[in-house]
User: Fold this.
Amino acid sequence: MAALTASLHCNGMTDWIELNDQASRQYADATIVFAEWEKARARVQECSGGMIWRTSKGREYLIQTGKDNRQRSLGPRSPHTEAIYTAFISRKRQAQETLGRLRHEMALADRQNRALQVGDAPALLVRILTNMERIGLRDSTLIAGDCALLAYAAQARVKSWLAAGQVHDCE
Assistant:
C-alpha cells in the first residue's frame, strides 16, 4: 500500500493514509449502493399513502389516501381510474421491493466496510446525520470541523488520524 506523503503531523502520526485498492473499490461500491438506496427511498416516499375503491350512492370511486390520512376522490370507476390504480399499486410494489433489496445490499456493504476498515465516521455522527436526513434537514445543514474533515477524507479515499477516536467536535 502506497502511503500518501503528508506535510502535517499530529501527535507524531501521519495525517493521511491512502486506502489500499480493495478498500478503495469497496468504498466506491458502497457509495453506489447508498446512492441507489437514497433514490429508492425517495420513490417509496412518492408512493406513500394508498388508493382504495369506495362505494358511495351506488357508485365506486377511487380514493387516494395520504400518509396523514387525508383522502381525496380521483373520480368514479372507469378505465382511466382503473389504470391510475393499477399503475400506482405496481409502482408502489416495485419501489418497496427495490428498497428491500437495497437494504440487504446496504447491510452487506456495511459488513464489508467494517472488515476492510472503510468509513471511519463515529457512530454517533452517523446517527445524527441519518436523523437529520430523515426529518428533511439535509440540504439546510452545514457540517464543519473534524466531521467535515472525515467526509473530505472519505471522498479522497484516505484515512485520517481523526479515525483513531480523536474527533472532538462531532457531538
